[in-house]
Amino acid sequence: MGVFFYNFKLKMKIRQTKDTFIRRYGNIGYITNQLTKQDCNYNETGADFLEKINRLPKDIDLIVKELLPLYQDITFKELKADFIEFTEDLEKSGFLLSGNNVDELNTKEPSFSYKMANPKTALYDFTNPDKKDVLTESSEFFYEKFHKEPTIFCLQIEVSSRCNERCIHCYIPNAKKDEGIDMELSLILRVLDEAKEMGTLQVTLSGGELFMHKEISIILRHARKNDFSISILSNLTLLTDEHIALLKEINPSLVQVSLYSMKAVEHDAITLVKGSYAKTKNAIERLVAADIPVQISCPVMKLNRKSYKDVLVYANKLRTKAYTDFIMMAQADHNTNNLAQRINLEETEELLKDMLQFDYDYLDSTLQQEPKSRDIEKFKKMPVCGVGVDNICLTANGDYYPCAGWQGMVLGNAYKQSLKDIWGNSEELKKLRTITNGSFPECVVCEARDYCAMCLVRNYNENNGDMFKITKHFCDVAFLNKKMVEDYLETKKIK
């Protein structure tokens, strides 16, 4: 027996890591890791192999015996060799663990820490033309599979409409927060179970303010029990030591929090809550100390456009990430008063100059991605976004919406219908699924199409429910973005 078989004879048990998630979509097998951000897709044989691997250590020989009836023209020895080769590649990439016993597996388990090297953020391309069981990269998979067969890959649940802040730019009307309610626990648990049955991978839990829900510990533990990759959106002002212990227990993919400035007076002027800066900053640092992954969101508006860079510097010192967004969305009730905080075109140009110098994530996403319209015919057929294709949002009163910001279009109500029923039969969703880039002919021929942040819900909220009416500001920003990037690249060439 060769060395290859000898090594695996000593390692007879195998399981996925705690940060690895496996799903099967028809004949497609999907594996992803929330720690390394790597993922991989396989067709039928790989899907069969992945389906036999889970979070409990399992004997390799037992797995092969279970697989053997599916492949009757192959011997046990041949199938085992194929399975070992398959899992060995995945173990090298951090998806799986193998060992001789449970203790050995547990000692090899990787965990997120701010002391480690920065986790990878780019998808790893597992495409190998010599292996027929491997498909193309994930973006291609999502387009080909979910556009044809809509699947709830991501579910957002706003567990409470109550919020203890009144952010001046927020797309959720203050009246909804003032009259806030918590979603019934039984409904949340039922929907989480329905999503599990439908193959959902990612669950985002938010509010209002998530930690205002008195049963949040039960909700988070149930989400973990159902094996979701969990993201949490919170202002963190209510974070307690008990919450930190709970987060360590449920192992979220990330906790996202908004920090608007490193000046308390600016941050508090945006939240309209005195002392919110100190509480949020303190909570961020406590989560970092506890090795819980934090992602900082820093929407840029008139109040903080001069100081947002300080948030990026702060995040970098903490070895976490900070993201900026300067487009801003009108309120879900079509009230556009909050857009008074939106920076104008001149201010946007000034901001983009800064971002090209200081925001490395913006550089990565803008300069390294392939132009999405390189194949113009394919571009025309692509959906504008994942609305109705791979994600949906549930709010505290039980209403389902296409996405979190699109609360003017009700798809159905969870108290009256199942998630499966709404996803499959909602007339609004059926209409949304017919909308592609080609539905905007002026965008297809636009020279700035690859620099555009056009969004159906932004159109809808800002134009009294007309999702096909594009606000001129978005177009102006797209052309500005194009010019700034091209000038930046030309400058780099000269140097």
Oligomer: single chain
**Which segments are poorly predicted (pLDDT under 50) over 5 or more consecutive residues?**
1-10, 119-136
Cα separation of the termini: 58 Å
Class computed from helices, strands and strand pairing? alpha/beta
- Give the rounded overall mean pLDDT: 89
Number of helices: 21
**What general outline do the C-alpha atoms trace?**
globular
Report the strand count.
Answer: 15
Percent of residues in beta strands? 5-15%
Widest sheet, order of strands: 12-11-10-9-8-7-13-14-15
Q: What value does the Rg take, in angstroms?
A: 24 Å
**Major sheet:** 9 strands, mixed
Proportion in helices: 40-55%
Description:
With about 500 residues, the chain is α/β, with parallel strands linked by helices. It is built from 21 helices and 15 strands. The chain has helices at about 5-10, 45-50, 60-65, 75-90, 100-105, 140-150, 175-180, 185-195, 215-225, 240-250, 265-270, 275-290, 310-320, 345-360, 360-365, 375-380, 420-425, 425-430, 440-445, 455-460, 470-495, and strands spanning about 15, 20-25, 30-35, 40, 60, 95-100, 155-160, 200-205, 230-235, 255-260, 295-300, 320-325, 390-395, 400, 410-415. The strands form three sheets. A nine-stranded mixed sheet has the order 12-11-10-9-8-7-13-14-15, with helices on one face. Strands 5-1-6 form a three-stranded antiparallel sheet. The chain is globular. The protein starts with a helix and ends with a helix.
